[in-house]
Amino acid sequence: MTADAHSANERVEGLTALAERLTALLALDCQAFEAHRPHEAAERGEETAKLANLYRHESARIRGDISTIKAASPQRRLKLAQVVESLDAVLARHGRALHAAKTVSEGLVHAIAREVAVQRGAGSAGYGPRGVQAAAPASTSTAITLNRRA
After folding, report:
1. In which element (H, E) is residue 102 found?
2. Buried b / exposed e across 18-57, counting CB within 10 Å, b at 16+?
3. Residue ranges per domain, the chain?
4. Model confidence, pTM
5. What angle do CA 145, 148, 150 make, to 5 degrees?
6. Residue 134 CB: number of other CB atoms within 10 A?
7. CB atoms within 10 A of CB 117
8. FRET partner for 53 with CA separation of 20 to 30 A, picked from 3, 47, 134, 138?
9. Quick count: other Cβ atoms within 10 Å of Cβ 8?
10. For the chain, what is the radius of gyration of the CA atoms?
């Protein structure tokens, strides 16, 4: 085996291992979102982001110079292709799960904001200087503070 083949095999094996680990983490995140436990996915967020960034850099480097893996064995390149295909499938599933979680979260925020506006609107009318009940303020905007860890 030449030095180029050895180096190419190592690069392909490294990228394969990275893609497998990233796929596993994203699959766990999908399961957490689907089970309505997004906090579990958030606990792995830093590691997932780090691996995703590393994968992005490595795959861009290979796309920029395909000769870096050309000398790798066909079996290793095939395995890499299969792992990348699995990663793509999990990424699509992850995107759907994130979209669903985002939609639910936004719906909850809007429902809470509407309820707060209704609650404040009902009790916001007071009495004027002559004992006459004053009209409620025209503005119904309400500030809401969200806890990112909730």
Report:
1. helix 74-123
2. bbbebbebbbbbbebbeeeebeebeeeeeebeebbeebee
3. 3-122
4. 0.71
5. 95
6. 11
7. 15
8. 3
9. 21
10. 26
**What DSSP assignment string belongs to 43-79?**
HTHHHHHHHHHHHHHHHHHHHH-THHHHTS-HHHHHH
pLDDT at 53: 96
- Look at 4 and 30; give whichever has higher pLDDT: 30
- Give pLDDT tens digits for 63-84: 998 888 988 999 999 999 999 9
pLDDT surpassing 90 at residue 16: yes
In Å, how far are 80, 102, 112, 126, 146 from 121, measured between CA atoms? Answer: 60, 28, 14, 11, 21
- pLDDT the model gives residue 120: 74
Q: What angle do CA 77, 88, 33 make, to 5 degrees?
A: 140
Tokens of residue 59, six digits: 């795959």
**C-alpha torsion sign, points 88, 89, 95, 97:** negative
Place 57 in a pLDDT band, splitting at 50, 70 and 90. very high
